[in-house]
Design brief:
heterodimer; A: about 750 residues; alpha+beta; Methylamine Dehydrogenase, Chain H; B: about 425 residues; mainly beta; five-stranded mixed β-sheet; 4 helices; 34 strands
């Protein structure tokens, strides 16, 4: 190790006795003259057989190994080597015995010899055997004829094609024994020779050797895994050479080396290199091991549809019925069968029996005999397991929240009324109806205190109070902005009132139009009476009175402001009447009553007329005078109705607290039923411009909804409740009686049973 | 954090303190800071009397503990804080409560007289002490707005606009206490809700609430260009017609004013404020809001428009910004419609507002989160407010009462 070879040579030369030659370390050495068995290769005489690698390696490694070993090993071995060195021939012989090879200087370049030296092949063993085992042939052959084969540790197959098998010590060929036995001879020999089983062939000589008893015994012991030596005792007591106790004398008494207490420069250099590398970040500290064991779900990413996934489709075995009292060894007496029951049980078919055994009573558990039906029951249980239904019931877990359609947030649907802005106080009883002037400046309200009040919208100032001498059921401002006229339903008559608010020119013109009426020459038969107001009434503002025969429910104007329709609370065909103001002419459009009419409305654009009865809304075409549509409201009692300004959508409020939205193009059934109110709806309203509708209910609230109608026929209306407006106090179990939108602003008015009108903005 | 470093400064040289940083407790409030400043002032001048101060940080009034305010305004507490202090504005002192027979729709006051419009179809003149001087009856409908046109020692000219679609120009002789109707101005097709006199006192602009929202007009009338001759005609209802009609609003106009000699500003229910050129009658610019405007006021001191609208906010606008609808600031505290706003004629930052929630609020634009003072005297809707140059706050409402407050601004002003 690190020692230059020259030094070794020097030391070797000191060890060598004169005349001795070592074959190992020196590259130029002489061949030993001793009678060392020299392996002779057949190639010295014949050509090298094909396929053998011929690698000239001048310095065989194993030859150097003893010297190398001597260098490393502690002194003891070294000494031993020295001992050997005194008798080099013997040492070499011993070496041959250990390595199983032979050395020859002249043969060194021969690859066969080189390869033969280290290997412990059969040749070596053969050589060894020649020394260990007494050769039987040697015994039979005369002593001078030593036919020991000197061929060495080479595969004997190389001599397969030759008549000889090797060379003896004198270099003469050893010929193979003549073998002319055929299979029959071999068989006969096998049969006849009693020692055939202990006959082996010596590969080195080709001779048959009969093993002696000791050899057979040795072979048998080795086969059994025992030691070859009979007398070897593997269990002799062990001698402890070292003790755990610290002795006063050290094993070696050598003083400590100087280097053991002087800091090593090399180490210092290495450490400084490491320090530098750490500083520069080339070496990084090891990541601390994570103490937490990492678990993972082995089946997390498993495809449930894969073959393995089928294992998940585990069907638990059907549960067995637990034993009851009747299976007890000592059941309560009510479980025991009477004689008749036993008889009936025996007569029943085994499949029909309720119990498949007869409950029996035993004195004690010790007296219970073996169960005779055990095998039968096990078999049935196996059948149950085998035939149990394998179908799985697939349960779909649906979050109910997901089923609700996504609606936009109310904040995004501004503007809509949110807070109460003004309260219009003055009425002393419940305010039944509201109407607003087309300009949005004046508000008219009719109340049970037998007055109609006109309010200024922006200040909640009551501008006029008109006593009408009866409960005001309905009020309607003429939608025509050039006419200033309000229709008021009081008991059996409709009063056409000029409120004298707004432009003087306008209400003056309205009066002029009404006064310019000239009655037709021939009197026509009318269902109602048109009466011009008296002077006293005229001073109050009343211009015309339309006297009906029965109490009125509702009045509504046509969009142009000339026609108006009234509803009479009657069960006859005279429920609905249509009046023309300019001609003071009334007519009854229906011949037959179709039910109790709740309210009527004119279509805002087209000549349609909507009549709401208790359950249905009928749409009539006024030009063709026919029924166009019949809408099923799905409600028990319709209370109110409003038409979208576009004219294709209708909402109906009902006393069973539902609001039905009809899309006339879509279906005759409600597109949507809104159940937001807790009590009966009294009134519904649409805004003229904004996509808003509102409903007032007996629970005292007004609910404002966003109701967007799209021009695109494929898109259904979007209905979103946006605001619940509270404010009205409940009076006589009534809350909000009428709702109304401002014509231009997103404001909603509501009139309540508490005698107030409220404005929400 | 217990201490903050602050540097105090003031515009008023009477109260100036040394310009060095002080360490003040972080949790100190206005009273603590006020004590501190007073101590400093006493140390400098032994004759100093105690004065209450108000404090501004970056132009915002301090209304809470110092550190909370700074956290809310995202001001670093590490650096020296610049705190400006002004003498604390005094609370308005209630002076008079003038009873009317009906709702008060409008009020305008001068140094000597208060003119009110009333829902009982009259306009009234009151002295500042609350004595009824004159009742002007002539309208056949509710008087919606009143305005002084000219005030001489002998005779005053005043205007009243009414729901009967007319504006009457009156001459009132203060000494004889006689009133004469000079002209009746007609032309509106609806109730006249607002009337404004331009700063040169020669032209009247009056605006209407239109009955039909499709065609809105606002009209301007030359009323007092030849007053001498008109005085001779004692005939009531000498009719005058509009000088110009400004149409463009699609809904009722709620308020109108002259912002300077050539510019008219109108606020409408159609969610817009429009600025018009008075000479040509053309539209100059439009400020668009998203709620109905009830009232608008213009301050010549800070050149801002203040609008009161139905969504309870008072918004400040810069009428000169060409990019249209730029809201500078929102003052939010009212809980009902803001029916009227009025800038202070003497203070750059202050305005007064009346609302349907019965409260009149005094605002400083430097404190937009909370008003300076709430004047909660009315028992019903407040319909009109006014602020005179002599520091008188007036508010009238639906409880038939006109309340007057003396607003001295600062204590030192009272002494002066």
């Amino acid at each position: 190790m690190g020692t230059p070879p020259g030094r070794w040579l020097q030391s070797w030369s000191t060890l060598r006795t004169p005349g001795e030659h070592l074959s190992c370390s020196s590259p130029c050495f002489e061949a030993p003259r001793a009678a060392v068995p020299v392996s002779v290769c057949p190639h010295q005489q014949r050509a090298v057989p094909q396929g053998i690698p011929f690698t000239p390696s001048p310095t065989p490694v194993p030859l150097r190994s003893p010297a190398a070993c001597g260098g490393i090993m502690p002194g003891g071995v070294f000494l031993g080597w020295r001992k050997e060195a005194r008798a080099p021939t013997r040492a070499l012989l011993g070496w041959e015995m250990l390595g199983g090879g032979c050395l020859g200087a002249e043969h060194l370049p021969d690859p066969h010899c080189c390869s033969s030296v280290p290997s412990h092949g059969p040749g070596g063993r053969g050589g060894g055997k020649g020394l260990i085992l007494p050769c039987p042939h040697a015994a039979s052959v005369p002593p001078p004829q030593d036919i020991r084969n000197t061929v060495g540790n080479i595969p004997m197959e190389w001599y397969e094609d030759f008549p000889h098998i090797g060379y003896d010590l004198d270099g003469r060929k050893i010929y193979k024994p003549i073998r002319n036995k055929d299979e029959l001879d071999k068989f006969l020999e096998k049969m006849e020779n009693p020692d055939y089983w202990r006959t082996v062939q010596d590969k080195m000589t080709g001779a048959d050797i009969k093993l002696t008893d000791e050899q057979v015994d040795l072979v048998q012991r080795l086969q059994k895994g025992q030691f070859g030596d009979v007398h070897f005792d593997p269990y002799e007591p062990a001698v402890d050479f070292f003790t755990h106790e610290v002795m006063i004398h050290p094993v070696t008494n050598r003083p400590a080396d100087k280097r053991s207490f002087i800091p090593s420069l090399i180490e210092k250099e290495k450490v400084s290199k490491l320090v530098h590398a750490i500083k520069m970040g080339w070496i990084k500290p090891r990541k601390p091991k994570e103490d937490t064991p990492t678990y993972y779900d082995l089946w997390a990413h498993e495809d449930p549809n894969s073959i393995l996934g089928r294992h998940k489709m585990h069907v638990p075995a059907p549960k067995m019925k637990l034993p009851g009292h009747e299976e007890s060894y000592n059941p309560p007496p009510e479980y025991l069968l009477s004689e008749e029951e036993k008889l009936a049980w025996e007569q029943q078919e085994p499949a029909e029996r309720k119990l498949n055994f007869i409950p029996q009573q035993y004195r004690c558990l010790r007296a219970v005999p073996a169960y005779p039906r055990f095998i039968q029951e096990r078999f049935e249980r196996c059948l149950d397991l085998y035939l149990c239904p394998r179908q799985r019931k697939m349960r779909v877990n649906v979050d109910p929240e997901d089923l609700i359609p996504k609606l936009p947030k109310p904040r995004d649907l501004q503007p809509f009324p949110t807070t109460q802005a003004l309260v219009y106080r003055g009425h002393t009883s419940l305010v039944r109806c509201l109407s607003i002037s087309p300009s949005g400046q004046w508000l008219a309200s009719g109340s049970d205190d037998c007055t109609v009040r006109f309010w200024e919208v922006c200040t909640a100032r009551c501008m006029k109070t008109l006593p009408v001498g009866g409960v005001v059921k309905s009020i309607a401002w003429n939608p025509n902005p050039t006419v200033c006229l309000v229709a008021v339903c009081v008991e059996q008559s409709v009063l056409l009132v000029n409120p004298c608010l707004g432009d003087k020119l306008l209400y003056g013109a309205t009066d002029q139009v009404l006064e310019s009426y000239t009655p037709p020459e021939e009197e026509r038969v009318q269902p109602v009476q048109w009466l011009t107001a008296t002077i006293e009434e005229h001073s109050k503002g009343i211009r015309l009175t339309v006297q009906h025969s029965k109490a009125l429910k509702q009045v509504t104007w046509h969009g142009k402001g000339d026609y108006f329709a009234t509803v009479v609370s009657d069960n006859s065909s005279m429920q609905v009447l249509i009046h023309q103001t300019s001609k003071r002419w009334s007519q009854n459009p229906f011949r037959k009553s179709k039910g109790l009419v709740q309210c009527v409305l004119f279509h805002p654009i087209r000549p349609y007329f909507f009549v709401a009865t208790q359950r249905y809304v009928r749409v009539y075409n006024l030009l063709k005078q026919e029924l166009t549509k019949k809408l099923m409201s799905n409600c028990k009692w319709v209370s109110s109705m409003a038409i979208h300004p576009g004219g294709d959508n209708v909402i109906c409020g009902s006393y069973d607290s539902k609001l039905a939205w009809f899309d006339l193009d879509l279906s005759t059934r409600p597109y949507q039923l809104l159940r937001h109110h807790k009590k009966a709806l009294r009134s519904v309203a649409f805004h003229k411009h904004y996509p808003l509708f509102a409903s007032g209910s007996d629970d005292g609230t007004v609910i404002v909804c966003h109701g967007m109608v799209y021009n695109d026929l494929l898109q259904n209306p979007l209905l979103v409740p946006v605001k619940v407006l509270k404010g009205h106090a409940l009076t006589l179990d009534l809350g909000v009686l009428d709702v109304l939108f401002h014509p231009t602003q997103p404001w909603v008015f509501s009139s309540g049973a508490d005698g107030t009108v409220r404005l929400y903005t | 954090m217990a201490q903050l470093t602050a540097r105090f400064r003031t515009e008023n040289p009477r109260y100036a303190v040394e310009d060095v940083p002080f360490s003040v407790p972080a949790a100190s409030e206005i009273t603590d800071l006020s004590h501190l400043i007073n101590k400093l002032l006493v140390a400098a001048d032994a004759d100093h009397k105690y004065v209450e101060f108000d404090f501004l940080i970056n132009g915002q009034f301090l209304r809470m503990p110092l550190v909370t305010h700074m956290e809310m305004e995202n001001i670093s507490t590490e650096e020296v804080v610049e705190i400006e202090y002004v003498e604390k504005y005094m609370a308005p002192q209630p002076e008079e409560c003038i009873f009317h027979d009906d709702w008060i729709s409008s009020v305008q006051a001068t140094e000597e007289w208060i003119l009110t419009g009333c829902y009982d179809q009259t306009a009234r003149i009151w002295s500042l002490e609350g004595k009824s001087i004159m009742t002007i009856a002539g309208h056949t409908e509710v008087v919606k707005d009143v305005a002084w046109v000219k005030q001489d020692s002998l005779s005053c000219l005043l205007l009243s606009a009414s729901m009967d679609q007319t504006i009457l120009l009156w001459e009132w002789n203060a000494e004889k206490n006689k009133v004469k109707a000079l002209h009746s101005c007609r032309g509106h097709a609806g109730s006249v809700d607002s009337v404004a006199v331009d700063c040169t006192r020669t032209k009247v602009s009056d605006f209407l609430k239109e009955t039909f929202p499709t065609d809105e007009e606002d009209e301007m009338e030359e009323a007092a260009n030849r007053p001498r001759k008109k005085q001779k005609t004692e005939q009531l209802g000498l009719t005058r017609t509009p000088l110009a009609t400004l149409s463009g609003h699609t809904e009722a106009i709620s308020s109108v004013l002259w912002s300077d000699a050539e510019e008219i500003c109108s606020a409408s229910w159609d969610h817009t404020i429009k600025l018009w050129d008075a000479e040509t009658g053309g539209l100059k610019s439009t400020l668009t809001g998203n709620k109905v405007f009830n009232s608008v006021s213009y301050s010549t001191l800070c050149r801002r428009l203040a609008s009161g609208s139905t969504d309870r906010h008072i918004r400040l606008w810069d009428p000169r910004s060409k990019d249209g609808s730029l809201v500078l600031l929102s003052l939010t505290s009212h809980t009902g419609w803001v029916t009227s706003v009025k800038w202070s004629p003497t203070h750059e930052h202050q305005l007064i507002s009346g609302s349907l929630d019965n409260i009149v609020k005094l605002w400083d634009t430097r404190s937009c989160k909370a008003p300076l003072y709430d004047l909660a005297a009315h028992e019903d809707k407040v319909l009109c407010v006014d602020w005179t140059e002599t520091g008188l706050l007036l508010s009238g409402g639906a409880d038939n009462k006109l309340y007057c407050y003396r607003y001295p601004a600062t204590a030192s002003d009272v002494g002066a």
